[in-house]
Every structure is written in C-alpha cells, then in structure tokens.
TrEMBL record:
Name the record gives this protein: ERCC4 domain-containing protein
Residues annotated as domain ERCC4: 201-459
Positions with biased composition (Polar residues): 59-76
Organism: Fusarium falciforme
Ranges of biased composition (kind: Basic and acidic residues): 142-182
InterPro entries membership: EME1/EME2_C, ERCC4_domain, Mms4/EME1/EME2, XPF_nuclease_EME1_ascomycetes
Record field: compositional bias (Acidic residues): 84-99
ATP-binding as UniProt keyword: no
Cofactors that this protein relies on: Mg(2+)
Any one GO BP annotation for this protein: double-strand break repair
Amino acid sequence: MTMMTLSPVLPDLYISRRPSQLQDLSNPQIPVDPIAPSPIRTTAPVSKSLHRRTATWDPISSSAPEVCSFDSSPPGNQGHVVIDIDDSDANDNSEDDLPDISNFDIAKIRRRSQLQRSQSDVIPSKSRSRSKPTTTTTSKKSAADRAREKEARAAAKEVDKETKRREKQEAKEAKAREKERNAALAEVNKLRTDKKVSTPEMMVDIPSSLNPTITTQLTAMLEPLDVQFTTWESPVDNVIKWRRKVKSRFNDDLGLWEPIPLRLQDEKHALVVMTADEFVKLALDDELSSHVEKMERHFSAHHILYLLEGLIPWMRKNRNLRNRQFTSRVRAQEASACNSSRRNKPAESYIPEETIEDALLQLQVMHDVLIHHTTIPLETAEWIVNFTQHVSTIPYRKQRDQATLVAGFCMESGQVKTGEDTKDTYVKMLQEIVRVTAPIAYGVAQEFTSVSELVRGLEAGGPTRLEGVRKSANKDGTFSDRTIGQAVSRRMYKVFTGQDETSTDV
C-alpha cells in the first residue's frame, strides 16, 4: 500500500489507497497551481526497520530543526489520523463522509503562500505612503477644527464671563433690595407712638368756609411738621378731617410692621370749629341736636369733636353783663326822681348761664361728643395741630396697648424707672418695694451685691437679717449711723422669700 502525505492541506493526515487508484503527483508534467502553497508530496513505502533521523537543536538558529525528513514517516508522537480508503463494506460510512481524492480541489483551500506573505509585508508601506495626503488633510482639518474649537472656547468663555457678570449684578441688586427692605422694615417699625415720627403721615383737609385767619396760621404751623394739607368743600360748615399716608401693615404672626405700597386712608375723626356766637345761637334756638344729627349723617363712622372758640370769654362777659344790669337797675331806681328826659343806650340782653351749660352737657352726655375750648384764633390753630399729632399716633398706641394687654402693670414710657447699669437697676428694683427708700436700697446693695445673694442671705438669716444693715448716706458708699430697722427687714424678707401667689405685698 502506498502512503501519501498532505502536509500543507491536511496536516498529519495519511490516506491509504490501492496502487491502481493512486495518481502520480510527483510527475513534473502535471500542471501545478502557482498560488498553491506547496505541492503534494508522495512518499514511497519505507520499511519499519529504517531508523529515524535524530533532530538536534541549534542554539544559534532562530528556528527549530526539522523533525522529520522527506523520506521519513511522520513522527509517532503526533496524533495522526489514518484513513484506509479500501473498498471494503465495513468502511462505507467513512467513504461517504470524505470526498474522493480525484475530486479534492486544492485551489479552493485558503492558504497563505509566501507571495501573499510578501504582499502583506508590502501593504503597510503602501498604506503608509497613501495615508500621507490623508494625514495632511487631517492636519488641515485639525487646524480648522482647532480654530473652531478656539473660537468656541472663546465664545464659551465670553458667555461664562457674561453669566458671571450677570449673576454678580443680580446678587448685587438682590443685596441692594434686601438692604432697602431691611431699611424699610426698620423705618416702619420705629416707635410710632412718638408724634414727631407719626405726624408726617397725616394730611389735613381744611374746609373752605374756615376763618381765613385760622387757615393762614394753621398752614404756617403744619409746614414745619411736614404735614400736607388741602382745601375741601365740607357739607357742614367748618369741619376739618384727616387722611393718612399708610405705608405699613401690622403682621400679627411676626409681631411687627411690614411695609406696603403707599395708599391714602381716611381717619375716623372729624373736628368742628365753632365760634361762641354760633354755639349760643344753636343753644337758644334749640338746634344743637339738629346740628349733631347732621354731622352724624355725613360722618357716620367718625368720632366727632367740637372745638369751641371764645365760649369761655363769652360766658365771662355774660356774667359781667348780668352784674352791670343789676347795678344799672339799682341806680335807675335811685335816679327815678331825676330828669327822665335823658335817652339811655339800649342795654344788651343777658342769656341765662344755665342754658349754655345744659347745651354743653347735652353734647357730652347725649351725643358722646368731645368738647375743647379755645380763646383766640391762634390758639384754635395750635389745637388743630395738636389734634393732628394726636390722631397720627392712635393706631400705633392701640397696637401697643393690645400687645401689652397681658401685662399686669402700666407699660407707658416713664412708668418704670430704668437703670444705667446692673447695680443701678438693682437699686431701683429695691426702691419699688414699699418703704424702701434710696438710702435703704443702697445700703442693701452694698451688703448683698445681687438678688441671688440677697435671697440666700435672707433664707439663712431669717426675717431680721437686714435689721442691722446701715443706711447709705450717698451713692458713693458712705454709710450713716442709722439702720434699716426690723419692720423694713421683715417686709423685704416676705417679698423675696414668700411663696403666696395671692400676696400683694410689694
């Protein structure tokens, strides 16, 4: 049996066939495919007695030595698969699976030849030579891209700079707005119970029917107070009313005044300026009630005030007239025997004083009207200014009274004395106790420098602990020979150590 080795195509594959069916592939006349990697070699039968050549390792050579020669059989250590192509019936399945050797197309087998390897070695250089224009184009594109990127970075930087500038400007404006808001909040939360602060909020509506003398003096007094004034046609003669420039609103939740947009608000007060002659005429004609009803009809939600000018001098003059009339009647009786042809001046009529007093009581009791008296036009103008200042503080005083409603004592300014420092406050606190004078307070403060020390001293010494404490002669600490005494000592002991909640001893 002839053995054939297909080393390039089927490594380590040996095919056995009959001699009659084996094609001689060693004949040089048979055309060979030049692209094929190597020709198919045929190996003559070699006896098993031939010794294999021993392959030695060349340490200098970069390649390993050949393991087997041309005429040697394949090495035994490699796992070869030998296919016996015999016409036996036992191998029908194997012949059906493998194609016939005559139909075996070696050209279809993909195998890299030396030419292909040399081509692959040359291709990189060609690709490198061809890639030079591409690199130049890429470099040109890269330069354009870099220019665009530079412009984009510059634009982004400019946008970022503009954004930061805008944010900085917005932060600055927000800070300015916050500062203005805090300033406005502080402005509206000033002590508005002070008439000097609240008066500029007022606007005075002066009636056109008011005495020009009073109007001139009134406007001259309102200008220094920064109070605006206007003239209006009153439905009732000589009625002055007020309006307020509201710029704040009290927040009950926060407990402070908040600024709001400016608006004008009518005050619920109306002032009637009336001369003595006008008032006496209304009282004599019994038309005073009609006048009050007319005021209530036009100023229904207002508190009405009557400013009576010259009524007190008129009443004094009326009393003098009564006295003169009495004297005249007495003298007339004495001169009845004399010449009666003398013509006397017509006497003024006396108005009963009770009529005027009843009219005043009617205003106060029946109509709940506030009455104030003035003597001359200048005083009338001054009191209009005083009423303007008082009306300006009304809402703020109401709010303060509402806030201090829970307090058990008066919270008006000046009711409670305040000290300059801790010691002075301590001394003034001791003086609020009944029968504790300033010398006693300074003597106790010199003995016990704080309230806690005083309480501990009283608890340790008992009710008579302060009995022998000397009184102070002055604020510098000089003591006199007099002592506090037992009564004051017991009172102070009861005040500072007592636990009776219903006690009123202070």
